[in-house]
Specification:
By secondary structure, this protein is an alpha+beta fold. α12 packs antiparallel against α13. The chain is 43% helix and 17% strand. The strands form nine sheets. Strands 17, 22, 23, 25 and 26 form a five-stranded antiparallel sheet that branches. The N terminus and C terminus are likely disordered.
Amino acid sequence: MAAADTKLGGCEESRLGSEETRTRSSGPVGSWESELTSIQHSLKFVLKLREEFVCPICRAVVLNPQQNSCGHIYCLHCLQGLLESSSLSSAVCPVDGAVITAAEVFQDNCCKREISSLEVFCTNSPACTSVLTLHRLQEHLRLCPYEQLQCSSPACRAVLQRRYLQQHLTNTCPHRLEPCPHCRRPHRLSLMQDHVQSSCPDVDVDCPNSCSLKVPRHTLTEHRESCPEVHVNCPYRNFGCSVQDKRGKVKLHEDAAVSRHMLLVLRSNSDLEQQVEVLQEEALLRQQDAQTDSLLLTGLQKRIQPLLKQSSCHEHAVSSAQRNLSRQQDVLSTVQLDVQQVSRGLPGREELEQLRQSLDAVMQEASAAEALREHLGSLEENLQRHAGLLDLHAAQLSHNKQRLQELEATSYDGKLIWKIKDFKRRQDAEAKGQPPCLSSVPFHTGRCGYKMAVKAYLNGDGEGRGTHLSLYVVLMPGDFDALLPWPFRWTVSLSVLDQSGAGNNRSLSFRPDPASKSFQQPAAESVGNVAVGFSSFLPLNQLETPGNGVYVKDDTLFVKIRNENMDEVKVTGTF
């Protein structure tokens, strides 16, 4: 290593460095040197590499040179491997056999600067003709167009030069992402055919019921609701028609059997009218029962008044008896003391006889007081039993009266005039949130028709809150819903009536949306469907200030609702 010593003559301070320099010699390899470790043996230098720059352990260019006391330099990772493999014995230099100890090794920075400045060819030569210094090589390889790279698509194993990678990713990679020609969503090209054949929602597919139509895959469920090949029941099944066939044939049957269907409907209506008559008779009987209960309740009230007075008298008597008993107990105690004294003093027979008589009298009064207390207890039990019967009859009477009022107020022609009293007080209470709205009594579109009610927000609701009167209609569960066609399709008209006599009523109408849940059959266990109507029916300033009409008079407002079945109008015209 004489040549090496001559070469490193200007770096004496490195070889004679302090203990701190020796300690740093075992530090981590520089970033560019660690990246070149994998291609260390394939590097091609422009000028022949001098022997002193060749690591005696790996026989490649020295990376991060470390110098031993013998003057030879080694790669840091090579020297570390040599020291680790010689843990049981001392490591020796492979050139002259000198002992290598970690304390005598130091980093040769002067040699490192010379090696980093050596010129090398790009590892992709001769395709790439670039020549650059060793410490710039890795930086060049990150941009070299001839560098071999693997395709970035997860399932692709292709390896190609950087200059061809973008074209490969864009045009030729079988695993690249491409938009589906139908739904325009990105999918892997290799899986595109499976996506189109099995899951793409926008691909037109044959109807599974063989109706000869092609529909988008995501509309198959919706198409089933109108497919003419699906088997369905006749719409008049609830009235007794048993026809079941493909939808198209059922439609022809429905058009051809109008008369038969009308007869079934009329027969069903006749049965329903009979049921209504039975219900009316039951209502009349309940009214009579209510009157009887009312008379019975009056009689019980008359009978219970004397009992209450008697109970009060007995309470006074018991109170007096208790006071008397207390006095007698005191007398008895005194008598007992006297008896004890007499027994000690041995009094005469006459005194003993008087004491015995006094004691018997006290015992009789105590027995009478006890009997009076038992009698009072039985009277209290009778009073509680009669009071319970009175409460039961009062509750039954209240229920019967409420039911009778509903039966008397119920309309069966689809019309209702609702009288709202105490308008101003109820409006002020609603503005404070108590109660949120008012509800009319239920009414029906016919004896066996739909059941509904009107809801009013006197201070407005939603968009009309505080500025408008809001009116809504709500469908309620009825006794004949199973026999009625759904959804509800009648035209609904709401009016606020003019009380001036000029007839300037304010009215708004709507036809139900068959797709809305508000017009489907109400659930039996629910109070009703979601209400539908007008949140801004009439401005409050027009409602309360007389103009073309008087709508609030004597603190009273009249609201009218009218239902009209357009289908029945057409049928009547046909007949």
